[in-house]
Amino acid sequence: MAVLDALMHGFAVALQPMNLLWALVGCALGTAIGVLPGIGPALTITLLLPVTVTMSPTAAFIIFAGVFYGAMYGGSTTSILINTPGESGSMITALEGNRMARNGRGAAALATAAIGSFVAGTIGTILLTVAAPTISEIAFVFGPAEYFALAVLAFTSVSVVLGASILRGLVSLFFGLALAVMGTDYQAGLPRLTFGVPELSDGIGITVVLVAMFAVGEILFVASRLSREPQKVIAVNGPIAMSREDWQRSWKPWLRGAALGFPIGVMPAGGSEIPTLLSYTLERRLSKNPEEFGHGAIEGVAGPEAANNAAVAGVMVPLLTLGLPTSATAAVMLAAFQNYGLQPGPTLFTGNPELVWGVIASLYIGNLMLLVLNLPMARVWVKLLAIPKPHLYAGILIFSLVGVWGLSQSWVELLALALLGLVGYGFRCCSVPIAPALIGLILGPMAELQLRRALAIGQGDPMTLVSSPIAAGLLIVAALLLLIPLLRFLRSRRNETPSLTAAQ
Amino acid sequence: MRKTMLSVAIAVGFSGMALAEPAKVMVPAGAGGGYDTTTRLAMTMLDKSGEFKDGAVFTNKPGAGGTLGLGEFIRTSKGQDNALMGMGVILLGAVMATKGSPQITETAPVARLTFEYNGLAVPANSPIRTVKDLTEALKANPGAVAFGGGSAGGVDHIIAGMIAKSAGLPLQRLNYIAYGGGAEAVTQLAGGKIAVLVSGASELKGLADAGRVRIIAVTSDKRLPGIDAPTLKEDGVDIAMGNWRGIVGAPGMSAAARKSWVERFAKATENAEWKAELDKSGLQSAYLGGDDFAAFIASENARIRPILEELGVAK
Amino acid sequence: MTAAAKPFPVRRLSRWSLPVGVLILGAILLREATDLPLTQAYAGIGPGFFVLAIGLVLTALGLALSYQVMRGAIFEPEETEGADIGRPMSWTGFLTAAAGVFLPIGLIGHAGFPLGGAVAYAFITRAYGSRKPLADVLIGFAVASITWFAFTRLGVQLGGFFPPGGF
Q1: Residue B3: its pLDDT value, please?
Q2: pTM attached to this predicted model
Q3: Predicted ipTM?
Q4: Ramachandran sector of residue B282 (left: φ over 0; alpha: ψ -120 to 50; beta: rest)
Q5: pLDDT tens across B44-65, in order?
Q6: Which of A304, A422, B77, B211 could bond to B250 as cystine, CB 3.0-4.6 Å?
Q7: Contact call for B8 and C41, based on CB within 8 A
Q8: C-alpha closest to that of C50 among B22, B287, A440, B288
Q9: pLDDT (tens digit, 9 = 90+) per residue, A185-236?
Q10: Cα–Cα distance for residue pair A366/A22, rounded to 1 Å
Q11: Per-residue pLDDT for B12 more than 50?
C-alpha cells in the first residue's frame, strides 16, 4: 500500500522530538484561542505568519494544523460553561451543552465533547489519508481552464452560502478581488491601482488585510457596542468522565456526526457550521427521548462536536490536494504555503511528500494530544476566561501590531492596517461577511492568471474555458448556486408583496 | 504594499565570540526564495570555513523584480565596506524591465557563486522529439506552441526568446505562458496543457524519470550528469544560458574591502559542504570573482537586452 | 451574548454608507481600467480586463444596494461575541478604540515597539471600560515587551527595543 508507506514516512517526520513539540505548541495554542471568545483559528494563524520566515514549512504547518484542530476542542469548553461559543462551529454545542452544565452535568458534557472530537477527528483524518492522494491525481487533468472554473465555483459558493444576503456576500467578494488586482500585473509587468506608491508595487499583503478585517475590525466593533452583561462561568464538580449510559447515548451520534462533517467539510464553502447544525437536527429526530432536547440532551453535544472536528479534516482535503481553501482558516493556511513559495495541490504530494505526510501524521498525533490536554485539564483552560475583557482585546491589538510590523516595519502598512480595520468595522455594522473578501483576495490572482493562461493557450478562443467536461461542470454548478436563489427571490416577489428581507 | 522588509537578524557566527561588526546583507527578494537561500547559504559558509565569523544581518526587500531592494541598497549603503547584496541574472532582466530602475553597475561586483542549468521538456506523448521538431513547429504555427516557463523577463523567458529567434520567428509572436512556480508548470506540462516548458533541469528531472515528461535538451555547455538529453548546441541552436546568482558589494566600497570579500568567497566556495548543499537543490558551484565577475555581468547584459527588448519586456 | 435582543439598526443617513462606499470603489477601478491595456496578444484579454470587470460588477452591486436602501432596507449589525447589538453605537467607545489603532502608525517607528504598543494598549483598555490608565500603560508595556522579546527570539525583527534615536 503506497498510502500506508507514505503515512509511515509521515510519522517518522512527525515523531521527531522537535516536531512533537511544535504539535504540542499548536494544540495548546489552539485550545487556548478556542476557549477565548473573539480570537479564532484564522486570526491566530495569521498572527503566526511572520514566524514562517525562520521555521521550516513542516514545523510551521504542524503548528497550524494543531491550532486548527485545537480551536474546535477549546471552543466547546466555552460553549458548555459560559453559553458563548468560542468558535462559530461550536454554536450548536452551546444549546445543549450549557443546559447540561446548568443541570450539574457539565463534566459529562465536556467529556462527550472531547472524546467525540477525538473519535471524529481521527475518523476524519483517516478519510483524509485515504482520499487525498486519489484526489491529488486530478492535478494532471487540471489545466488553467479547470483551475479558473474551480476558483469561480469557490467565489460563488462562498458568497452565496456565507452571510445574511447574497448581495452583501458578493460585495465582500468583489472588495477582496479589488484588493487582489493591486500591485504589478504578473503577465505584463504593468502596475495596477498602485497610485504611484512604490510600497504598493507588490499589492497589499494578505496578512495586513486579514489582521485588519478580523482583529482590528472586531476590536472597533465590540468597543462601539460593548455588552454590559458579565460572563458567568458555571463551575464543574467531580472528574470529567461519562457514565455507562452516557457512553451508550454518545457513540452513535459521534459516528453520525463524523459521517456528516467530513464530506461537508470537503465541499467548497462547506465549513464547520452547516454540518453541526445538520447533526443536531438529525440527532433530535433520531433520539428516543426528543423531549430532552433543549434541556440538556447529551446527543445534542456529542453529534455536533464530532461533526465540527470531522469537518476540519474535510477542509484539509481540498486545501492540500487542489490548493482550494473552503474556509477562512484554510485561506490563511494557503497564504502560509504561498509564503514558502509552495503551491498546494498535487505537486505538493510529489514534490514535498515529507511535508504533506508529516502534517497528516501530525494530525493523528495532535488529536491524541488534544484529548489529553482537554479531558483532565478542561478546568485549567477555563481559567483563561478570567482575563478581563479590556486586557483581552488590548492584547489582541498588540499581537496584530506584531504581525504587521514584524513583516514590514513600514508605517504605510500600519496605516493600511488601521484603514482596513475601519472597513472591517463597517462590514460588521452592515452584516457584510468577511470570509468572501479573503477568498477573493487569495484566489483572485489565481483566477485571473489561470483565465489569461487558458485563453493564451487557446489563442483567445473563449470556448476553451468550457471545452473540458470538468471545467464546464464546475462552471455550471457555480452558475446554479448563484441563479437558484435569484430565481427563488424573483418568484417570491411575483407572488407576494415585495419583501426586502427575503432578498437580504 | 507588501514591501515585506523581512529584516531577519541571524547571528551566524555565535560560537561564544563577541560580534564585531556583522555584514549587512540585502536580499532583494522574499524570504525562502532562490536569492534568499543562496545568499544565506553563502554567508553561513563564510562562517563555517572561518573566513568571516562576525555574523550577518539580513534584510529581505522583495518587490518589482528585486529593483526595490537594489534601490534601497544603493541609497542606504554607499561607501560601506561591510554591506553586501545577493543578486543574479533575474535582477539584470528586472532592471531592464523597470522604468527608472537603479543600475547594477553602481554596485561593486564581488563574486558569482552558483549556476543552475535549464532543460527543455515536452509531454511524454508529444510528437516533438528534438529541438529541430520544436523549431519547425514554431515556424509552422507559433500560436499553437504554448511555450511555458517562469515569470516574464526571467531566464526561462529569455531562453524561449533565444530559441524562437533561432527559428527566425518575430518574438512578439511567441506564445509565452508565464508560471510562478516550476512545480505547477511541470504538472501542467505532464497533463499536456502546454506544448513545451523551459525550467530548471532539476525540477524537470522528477517527472522525466517517472516517464510523464521528456527532456529534449539542456541549456548548458556540456551534457548534464543524470539527464539523458543533448545540449542545445548539439542540436544546432548556439545558446548556452543558465540561472546564475552572485554577490555584489556596496557602491563605493573601498578596493581593499572588495578584495578581501572576493578572497573570502573564493575560499568559502571550495568548501565541500557548500557543494553538497548546492547539490541538494540542483545548483552548481560557479565561482567567478571580482573584475572577471564584473566583465561577466557586462556580457550578460549585452546578450539579454536585445532579446528582452524584442520580447517587449525591456523598456 | 444576548441573542434575544433586537438588533439596533443603523441610523438613517449611515444606511447610505455601504452603497456609496461600494460605488466609490467601483468608480476607482473603472478609472484605473481606462489607463490599462484591455487586450493582449494570444490571450485576448490584457491587464485591464479584470480591473474593468471588477469595477463594473462593484458599480452594479452599489446600484442594487442603493435600490434596497431606497426601498427601506435596513442593514443590521452582525451578532458578535462580547457585543450587544441591541444597543446604539457608542461614539466614545469607538473613537477611543480607533485612537488606539491609529496612534501606533507614527508611534511605533519613532518610539519603538514596546512604548508604541503600551500607548495603544492603554487606549483599547479604556475603550473597554477600564479606568486605570496608569496601570494599563504599565501592563501594556509589559505585554508589548514580552511579545517583543518572544517574537525577536523567533527571528522576527521588530526594530530596537527603545526608540531608534534615543529618548
Answers
A1: 32
A2: 0.78
A3: 0.90
A4: left
A5: 888 888 888 887 877 777 666 7
A6: B77
A7: no
A8: A440
A9: 766 667 788 887 767 777 787 778 878 887 899 899 999 988 777 666 677 7
A10: 10
A11: no
Q: Which residue has the cell 491524541?
A: A368
In the chain, the amino acid numbered A355 is L
Q: How far apart are the first and last CA of chain C?
A: 45
Size of interface A-C (CB pairs under 8 A): 263
Three-class SS of residue B245? strand
Whether C44 contacts chain B with CB within 8 A: no
Q: Which residues pair with B56 in a beta bridge?
A: B10, B23
Find out whether A152 and A478 touch, Cβ atoms under 8 Å: yes
**Is residue A374 helix, strand or coil?**
helix
DSSP strand pairing (A183-184 vs A191-192): antiparallel
pLDDT at C2: 37
What is the sign of the dihedral through the CA atoms of A211, A215, A221 and A224? negative
The three cell numbers locating residue A245: 449510559
B183/A contact by beta carbon, under 8 A: yes
Q: What's the mean pLDDT when you consider all of chain B?
A: 83
φ/ψ bin of B153: left (φ > 0), alpha (ψ from -120 to 50), beta (otherwise): left
Residues 6+ apart with CB under 8 A from B260: none
Which pairs count as long-range contacts for A263-267, CB under 8 Å and 24+ apart, including other chains? Answer: A263/A314, A264/A311, A264/A314, A265/A124, A265/A310, A265/A311, A265/A312, A265/A313, A265/A314, A265/A315, A265/A317, A265/A326, A266/A131, A266/A314, A266/A315, A266/A317, A266/A318, A266/A326, A267/A157, A267/A314, A267/A326
| pLDDT digit string, tens, across residues C17-48 | 899 999 999 999 999 998 888 877 787 788 88
CA distance A104 to A127: 36
- Tell me: the pLDDT tens digits for C42-91? 877 888 899 999 999 999 999 999 999 888 877 888 777 677 777 788 89
* Of A171, A227, A426, Cβ closest to residue C82: A227
What is the interface size between B and C, counted as CB pairs within 8 Å?
13
- Residue of B313, B315, B269 whose CA lies nearest to B178: B313
Encode B275-304 in three state secondary structure: HHHHHHCCCEEEEEEHHHHHHHHHHHHHHH
What confidence tens digit (pLDDT) does each residue in A242-255 have? 888 888 899 999 99
Single-letter residue type at B194: I
Domains of chain B with bracketed CATH: 7-115+243-311 (3.40.190.150), 116-218 (3.40.190.10)
Q: Which of A198, A347, A408 sits opposite B187 (nearest CB)?
A: A347
* CA–CA separation, C108 and A406 (whole Å): 11
- Which residue from B23, B33, B19 is spatially nearest to B58, judged by alpha carbons? B23
| Helices and strands in chain A: count of H runs, count of E runs | 22, 2
What is the distance between the alpha carbons of residues C167 and C162, in angstroms, rounded to a whole number?
8
Q: How far is CA B131 from CA B166, B169, B176, B214, B230, in A?
A: 11, 15, 17, 12, 9
Strand B23-27 relative to strand B83-88: parallel, antiparallel, unpaired?
Answer: parallel
Contacts of B62 in chain A (CB under 8 A): 202
- B284 part of contact set with chain C, CB < 8 Å: no
| Residue ranges for chain A with pLDDT beneath 70 | 1, 37-39, 50-53, 83-89, 136, 138-139, 161-164, 186-189, 198, 230-233, 237-238, 268-271, 341, 343, 345-347, 351, 407-408, 493-504
pLDDT digits (tens, 9 = 90+) for C88-131: 888 999 999 999 999 999 888 888 899 999 999 999 999 998 89
What does pLDDT average to over chain A?
A: 82
Cα dihedral A460, B148, B41, B71 sign: negative
Question: Hey, which bits of A104-249 come out as E strands?
Answer: 183-184, 191-192
User: Given an 8 Å threshold on Cβ–Cβ distance, is C157 in contact with B8?
Assistant: yes
**Partner-chain residue, chosen from A51, A401, A504, that has the shortest CB–CB distance to C117:** A401
